[in-house]
Amino acid sequence: MNGPKGPNTRLAHLGNRPHDFHGFVNPPVVRASTVLFPDAETLTARRQKYTYGTQGTPTTDALADAVNDLEGSAGTIFVPSGLAAVTVPLLAFLSAGDHLLIVDSVYGPTRRFANAMLARFGVEVDYYDAEIGAGIAAKLKPNTKVVFTESPGSNTFELQDIDAVAAVAHKAGAIVMMDNTWATPLYFRPLDHGVDISIHAATKYPAGHSDILFGMVSANAACWPRLKDTQTNLGTCVSSDEAYQVLRGLRTMGVRLDRHRDSALALAAWLETQPQVDRVLHPGLPSHPQHDLFRRDFAGSSGIFSFVLKGGGAAEAALFLNALTIFGLGFSWGGYESLAVPVNLDDRTLPQAYAGPVIRLQIGLEDVADLRADLEAGFRALG
Ligand SMILES: Cc1ncc(COP(=O)(O)O)c(C=O)c1O
């Protein structure tokens, strides 16, 4: 496309080359293990664009082209889940004897992988406060190879000063990875802020319909060869069927995300006025302690945030949740339907102080008035 275009124009066209496929608007879903070569010489030299199903197809390439454009990355790998999009790059860039720094508000299974598996492989793991910024310098060791970031953090939505963390980490020779699932590249572009490896659970907003598990990892030019080799060595690839569904989801991600953003902000602001609510944890609200950082770095906020009840515990959270009829009780987010879960912060390394139970909401595409009425029923159940 000529010249800079708006995000929805780009999402509508990125990755598509209709005239490579007889004019059909969308790329074909190429299901493949074997790819044939015309002769023995070409096979031996692997001298053609496609060589084997694990190495990509026209369908996965269409998605990769779109994602590289959105991320500003040199290359992107696809893996079978968002969690694999975390574990594969960590395996790519860490070896026995290395030190890994992870933000304490990280997605729980990332912590579990680091503590259970990386530690077994001889990687030293430490956690740091999301608000550390340039103070990360004090946590870096001569053997620190990776600083893992996630902003906002899972469940409690603290922001990180990614530019500051990346500048200090790079000076010490470490690379920076970021789980950017919350913002998507539409609202935050990690590589523009010094991140080397951008990670997405495409299960969430890109797929958008709660029916696909998919991960994407995008790298800058320096990190791309090692990331790609690791995927090849591990054999973690995806099917073209799933890649097609994610590409299909991307086409509408911009308009869906704007709706998630507006509805979530409206409900978050309303929750702040409810007598049973102590705090709302949403970086897009002016009351969020890091709202200035949010305004500096993010082009928008997505549809997931938490709120804290004034007092009570697991029993009160259950009373509230069991009264909901539109919000489903279930994990994941980014789909068209609203969800609620009680938040468990027991695995955090740093002390947590909240007045009551923390409840996380994923705001779907339903009508805000109906969602508000559902939450009101939850508050009524609390008495
Ligand atoms: C921030 C974040 N990263 C990664 C993942 C993992 O994605 P998946 O469910 O596709 O494994 C999740 C899932 O909830 C998540 O919230």
Secondary-structure blueprint:
Blueprint: H1 7-13, H2 40-45, H3 58-71, E1 75-79, H4 82-93, E2 99-103, H5 108-118, E3 124-128, E4 144-150, H6 162-171, E5 175-179, H7 184-187, E6 197-201, E7 215-219, H8 224-234, H9 240-272, E8 277-281, H10 291-297, E9 304-309, H11 314-322, E10 328-329, E11 339-342, E12 358-362, H12 368-381
Parallel strand pairs: 2-3, 2-4, 4-5, 5-6, 10-11
Antiparallel strand pairs: 1-7, 6-7, 8-9, 9-12, 11-12
The chain binds pyridoxal-5'-phosphate (PLP).
GO molecular function, one term: cysteine-S-conjugate beta-lyase activity
Keywords: Lyase, Pyridoxal phosphate
Modified residues (N6-(pyridoxal phosphate)lysine): 204
Features:
383 residues; alpha/beta; Aspartate Aminotransferase, domain 2; Aspartate Aminotransferase, domain 1; 5-stranded mixed sheet; 12 strands; 36% helix; binds pyridoxal-5'-phosphate; Cys/Met-Metab_PyrdxlP-dep_enz; pyridoxal phosphate; PyrdxlP-dep_Trfase; Cystathionine beta-lyase
Explain what you see:
By secondary structure, the chain is α/β, with parallel strands linked by helices. The chain has 2 domains: 7-249, Type I PLP-dependent aspartate aminotransferase-like (Major domain) (Aspartate Aminotransferase, domain 2); 253-381, Aspartate Aminotransferase, domain 1 (Alpha-Beta Complex), CATH 3.90.1150.10. Helix content is 36%, strand content 15%. It has 12 helices and 12 strands. It has helices at 7-13, 40-45, 58-71, 82-93, 108-118, 162-171, 184-187, 224-234, 240-272, 291-297, 314-322, 368-381, and strands at residues 75-79, 99-103, 124-128, 144-150, 175-179, 197-201, 215-219, 277-281, 304-309, 328-329, 339-342, 358-362. A 7-stranded mixed β-sheet has the order 1-7-6-5-4-2-3, sandwiched between helices. The longest helix has 33 residues, at 240-272. The model has no long low-confidence stretch (mean pLDDT 97). Bound molecules: pyridoxal-5'-phosphate. Pyridoxal-5'-phosphate (PLP) binds next to α4. The modification N6-(pyridoxal phosphate)lysine is found at residue 204. InterPro entries: Cys/Met-Metab_PyrdxlP-dep_enz (IPR000277), Cys_b_lyase_bac (IPR006233), PyrdxlP-dep_Trfase (IPR015424), PyrdxlP-dep_Trfase_major (IPR015421), PyrdxlP-dep_Trfase_small (IPR015422). Keywords: Lyase, Pyridoxal phosphate.
